[in-house]
Write a structure and sequence with these properties.
Strand order of the largest sheet: 12-3-4-14-13
CATH architecture of the largest domain: 2-Layer Sandwich
Oligomer: single chain
CATH class of the largest domain: Alpha Beta
Number of strands: 15
Helix content: 25-40%
Largest sheet: 5 strands, antiparallel
Number of helices: 7
Number of domains: 2
Structural class: alpha+beta
Distance between the termini: 30 Å
C-alpha cells in the first residue's frame, strides 16, 4: 500500500512504496547547503558542484625535503583573519581581562639564528606565556626582514603585562647570544593594543610574499582553534538544483549584506569539486528564514530499509 509523505514547507507531495530500487531517503533532485555560524554572529554558507566524474582520486605527494613556504595560501589567510575576528569578539564581549587584543612582535638584534632555531625560541617564549596566563590563546605569523632575520607577530586576546613579555624574550635571546659568544644588547619586543586585530594583521600576511621560510609560516593555538569553530553547523536539504537561488531570496528579504566566495580560481586541476558560497558578516535570522523557504524541507527519517521516494508534483528549480 502506497503512503503519502508531505514536505513541511511546500505543497510538494512524495510517495514511497516497497519497491526496493534505492536506499536514499530524499529525492535525487536536491542540493545540500552547508551552513556554519560562529560565536561572533558571522556565518559561512557553501554548496558544491561536481565538475566531472570517473577520474581517480589524486594521491598526495610525498615530502622528500624540508618544507619551505614562500607565501601564505588564501586558505591560511582566511583562517588567520577569522581567528582574529573571534579574538575581537572575545575581548569586546567581556570574556577577557583586556579590552583590546595584544600584538606582540618578537625580533632579534644584530645577530640572529636560522629559521629552525628561531622557531625553537618562539616555542620557549609561548610556553613561558602559557605558564603565566591560564587559557592562553594566540596565533603567530612569521615574517622575514630584508636582512634575512625572521621575526614573529603574535596576536592574543589575553592580558599579559609588558614586563613579563620583555623579560621572557630577553632571557631567551641572551642565552643564545652567550652560547654563541656574541655580545648581548638589550632586546625589547614591540607590544601594541589593537582595536581591530583582523585589519591590523592583514598587512603582515599580505606584504611578505616572496621570502622563503623553513617550516610553517603561521600557527594557531588549540584554544584559539576551539574558539573559532562554528557554534552552529547544519546540512540543509533543498528541492532546488540551484542553491544560490534559494539563498539570494533569503538575503534579499532580510536585506543581508554578503560576500560571494568560490574556489574556482585556486582549486587544483584534478579537483572535481567547485565550492561556491557566501560569507555573511551578520547572519541574524538567516538560518531561521532559510529553513522556512518553500524549497527547503526537513530531513525525512524513514526507518524501513529499501524504500523509494519519488515526486508526484516535481519542481526542478
Amino acid at each position: 500500500m502506497n503512503k503519502k509523505f508531505h514536505s513541511k514547507n511546500s505543497k510538494e507531495e512524495w510517495v514511497y512504496t516497497d519497491n526496493k530500487v534505492g536506499l536514499s531517503n530524499v529525492p535525487n533532485l536536491t542540493a545540500d547547503i552547508n551552513y556554519k555560524q560562529y560565536i561572533n554572529g558571522e556565518a559561512l554558507v557553501t554548496f558544491k558542484f561536481p565538475d566531472y566524474e570517473g577520474k581517480p582520486k589524486p594521491t598526495p605527494p610525498i615530502r622528500k625535503e624540508r618544507l619551505e613556504r614562500t607565501s601564505l595560501t588564501d586558505s591560511a589567510k582566511s583562517k588567520i583573519k577569522r581567528v582574529c575576528r573571534m579574538f575581537d569578539h572575545y575581548v569586546k564581549s567581556g570574556m577577557s581581562r583586556s579590552k583590546k587584543c595584544s600584538m606582540i612582535t618578537l625580533s632579534y638584534p644584530m645577530h640572529y639564528p636560522d629559521d629552525r632555531f628561531s622557531k625553537i625560541h618562539l616555542d620557549h617564549f609561548l610556553k613561558r606565556m602559557n605558564r603565566h596566563t591560564s587559557n592562553f590563546m594566540y596565533l603567530w605569523v612569521a615574517e622575514k626582514q630584508k636582512r634575512g632575520a625572521i621575526h614573529f607577530h603574535i596576536v592574543t586576546p589575553n592580558y599579559i603585562p609588558k614586563e613579563i613579555i620583555n623579560k621572557a624574550w630577553s632571557e631567551i635571546v641572551r642565552k643564545w647570544y652567550q652560547k654563541n659568544n656574541y655580545e648581548f644588547k638589550q632586546v625589547l619586543p614591540n607590544v601594541l593594543s589593537v582595536k581591530n586585530a583582523s585589519k591590523y594583521v592583514t598587512k603582515y600576511i599580505t606584504k611578505d610574499e616572496n621570502n622563503s621560510i623553513e617550516g610553517n609560516r603561521y600557527n594557531i593555538s588549540k584554544l584559539a582553534q576551539e574558539l573559532s569553530k562554528p557554534v552552529i553547523a547544519e546540512l540543509i536539504h533543498t528541492s532546488s538544483r540551484n542553491p544560490s537561488e534559494v539563498l539570494n531570496e533569503v538575503f534579499f528579504n532580510l536585506k543581508t549584506g554578503v560576500i560571494e566566495i568560490d574556489n574556482s580560481d585556486t582549486k587544483k586541476e584534478n579537483d572535481p569539486i567547485t565550492i561556491f558560497g557566501y560569507w555573511i558578516p551578520n547572519a541574524k535570522d538567516v538560518l531561521h528564514d532559510l529553513k522556512l523557504h518553500p524549497k527547503v524541507y526537513e530531513e525525512m527519517k524513514i526507518k524501513k530499509i529499501g524504500v523509494q521516494l519519488s515526486f508526484l508534483k516535481p519542481t526542478l528549480y
